[in-house]
């Protein structure tokens, strides 16, 4: 007698999530402060964000914010790079900085007993950076070498072009290259820091084992005399929707593989349809259970993986789908992409498919955001985007409320095959004719310039 395997029942119970209490204050100079007290770990975590991102930079100097982040923590008017590194290591701490599309971040952690030192060092780094010429030169050399190496990656070239196609003329489309990085000087760093690293455009989040009153006292001591008015830059123009499908073929002679990227413009991060698109994306291409993966890899064997993702910022965003495939199946793979897009647009998803996607997205959120450092990150994003204190709990409730009809409406609104930008990276001799069946093809070289 054949035994039928018994599958365990699916538990729909979600982990409860309540964002910790945040204590907000604002210094007289306009710097925003948030403290989230957690007594369970004897450490403090700081996250400082400035409204200074890649989109604020002259395109001829793209890479300037990245260099600012790299050099910022490597020497101040009070301590050398070696003295900073030694002092941080001696206390078992960590400090770093990075730049993004919308903001510049400085972050770190220290044991609670060294909390005051953490405030003191953070203040030095953001208020009194040295911008040493020799350190800047070395960072520029590293960045240029990285860019030259990245140009050998078809995925990098595809990403560069799809961003340019979807975000132009918005500054989100600006991308650094060897020439723009080489053009950056110490004077550019000093000027940018003086103009944009100001207390009225800064938010400091402190999480961990510290009293809110102590966090405010230390903030006032080390940042209270810092002065500077906020930036008054107006919003940038948004890219127009493409009137028709656009195809860009980046020619890599002799390539044995084709990297495909497809995308549509999307809304800003604060848009009301964000949660509907999160679940739409999860169903369509958000991992190994997504429709694109199951169709193109599991059923057809055209690729090792096919996925989709959201890329949303403060002012604008985009939605992408991606796969690497063999040249001989490019047409078939693209046809399957469009087939799955149309299914999402025209046919309601099954309720159990939506519920499965929701269980994953809602269920993984508390697990990924239980550590004090992760909570501090969420709190910083919440302040930088102007979200209310209840935002992250509301975000989960909105995900729970998304219906089958909401997913179909979002798919039909934002996944637009006829207006899609498509980038293929491969040998143009093998691909131009096949891609031509899907629309007019523009052939680019590996510097993303039109082939002559």
Feature tags:
single chain, 452 residues, alpha+beta, Cytochrome Bc1 Complex, Chain A, domain 1, 2 domains, six-stranded mixed beta sheet, globular, disordered N terminus
Average pLDDT score:
92
Q: What is the overall number of helices?
A: 16
Please, how many domains?
2
User: What's the helical proportion of residues?
Assistant: 40-55%
Instruction: Please state the second-level CATH architecture of the largest domain.
Output: 2-Layer Sandwich
- Range of strand content: 15-25%
Indicate the low-confidence ranges by residue numbers: 1-9
> What is the H level of CATH, i.e. the homologous superfamily of the largest domain?
Metalloenzyme, LuxS/M16 peptidase-like
Q: How many strands in all?
A: 12
CATH level-1 class of the largest domain:
Alpha Beta
The secondary structure category is: alpha+beta
CATH topology-level name of the largest domain: Cytochrome Bc1 Complex, Chain A, domain 1
Global shape: globular
Give helix and strand order, one letter per element, not per position: EEEHHEEHHHHHEHEEHHEEHHHHHEHE
Rounded to an integer in angstroms, the radius of gyration calculated over CA atoms is: 24 Å
Distance between the ends: 71 Å
Describe the main β-sheet briefly: 6 strands, mixed
């Amino acid at each position: 007698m054949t035994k039928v395997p018994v599958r365990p029942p699916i538990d729909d119970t979600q982990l409860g999530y309540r964002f910790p209490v945040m204590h907000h204050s604002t210094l007289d100079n306009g710097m925003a402060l948030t403290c989230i007290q957690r007594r369970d770990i004897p450490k403090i975590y700081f996250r400082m964000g400035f409204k200074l991102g890649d989109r604020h930079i002259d395109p001829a100097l793209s890479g300037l914010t990245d260099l600012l982040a790299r050099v910022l923590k490597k020497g101040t008017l009070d301590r050398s790079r070696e003295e900073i590194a030694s002092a941080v290591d001696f206390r078992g701490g960590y400090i770093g900085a990075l730049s993004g599309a919308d903001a510049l971040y400085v972050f770190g952690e220290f044991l609670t007993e060294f909390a005051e030192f953490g405030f003191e060092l953070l203040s030095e780094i953001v208020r009194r950076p040295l911008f040493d010429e020799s350190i800047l030169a070395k960072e520029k050399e590293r960045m240029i070498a990285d860019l030259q190496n990245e140009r050998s990656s078809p995925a990098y070239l595809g990403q560069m072009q799809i961003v340019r196609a979807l975000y132009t003329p918005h500054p989100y489309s600006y991308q650094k290259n060897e020439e723009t990085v080489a053009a950056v000087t110490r004077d550019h760093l000093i000027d940018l820091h003086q103009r944009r690293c100001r207390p009225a455009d800064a938010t400091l989040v402190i999480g961990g084992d510290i009293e809110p009153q102590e966090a405010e006292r230390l903030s006032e001591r080390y940042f209270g005399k810092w002065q500077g008015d906020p930036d008054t830059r107006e919003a940038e123009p948004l890219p127009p929707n493409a009137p028709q499908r656009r195809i860009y073929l980046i020619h890599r002679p002799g390539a044995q593989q084709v990297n495909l990227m497809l995308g549509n413009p999307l809304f800003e991060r604060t848009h009301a349809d964000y949660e509907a698109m999160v679940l739409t994306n999860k169903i369509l291409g958000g991992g190994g259970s997504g429709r694109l993966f199951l169709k193109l890899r599991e059923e057809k064997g055209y690729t090792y993986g096919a996925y989709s993702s959201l890329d949303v910022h403060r002012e604008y965003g985009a939605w992408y789908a991606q796969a690497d495939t063999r040249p001989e199946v490019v047409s078939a793979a693209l046809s399957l992409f469009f087939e799955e897009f149309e299914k999402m647009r025209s046919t309601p998803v099954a309720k159990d498919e939506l519920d499965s996607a929701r269980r994953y997205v809602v269920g993984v959120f508390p697990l990924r955001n239980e550590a004090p450092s992760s909570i501090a990150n969420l709190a910083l994003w919440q302040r930088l985007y102007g979200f209310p204190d209840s935002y992250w709990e509301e975000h989960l409730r909105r995900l729970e409320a998304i219906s089958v009809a909401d997913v179909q409406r979002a798919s039909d609104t934002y996944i637009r095959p006829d207006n899609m930008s498509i980038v293929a990276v491969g040998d143009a001799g093998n691909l131009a004719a096949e891609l031509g069946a899907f629309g007019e093809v523009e052939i680019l070289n590996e510097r993303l310039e039109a082939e002559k």
